[in-house]
Write a structure and sequence with these properties.
With about 100 residues, the chain is of the alpha+beta class. Helix content is about 15%, strand content about 20%. Strands 1-5-4-3-2 form a 5-stranded antiparallel beta sheet, with no helix packed on it.
């Protein structure tokens, strides 16, 4: 019985070591490319600008305004500068027509 135990043991170890569970997985190396996302440019929006009145546009009620980068600036009567639109301009007499 003893002489049968060793070959059976060796055979079982050999069969276990060749099973699929113990084989390393196939490594597939693929070349990956990295794509960089474009960086957004962050610019600060000035609250006050100075514009020549010839470059500005006149509204129906007679006030001057200037559009810059999708933002509207209205002319102040007192100092002649153009201020970024804000809802408080409705009550300010310097921005009234």
């Amino acid at each position: 019985m003893r002489h049968l135990f060793i070959p059976v043991l060796l055979l079982s170890i050999f069969l276990y070591s060749c099973s699929r569970k113990t084989q390393p997985a196939e490594t597939v190396t693929t070349e990956t490319t990295t794509v960089k996302k474009p960086v957004k440019k962050v610019t600060t929006v000035p609250k006050v600008i100075t514009v020549n009145d010839k470059a500005a546009t006149r509204s129906v009620d007679g006030r001057y305004y200037y559009d810059l980068d999708g933002r509207r600036y209205w002319r102040n009567k007192r100092d002649g500068k153009y201020y970024l639109f804000h809802k408080s301009m409705f009550n300010n007499p310097d921005f009234q027509p």
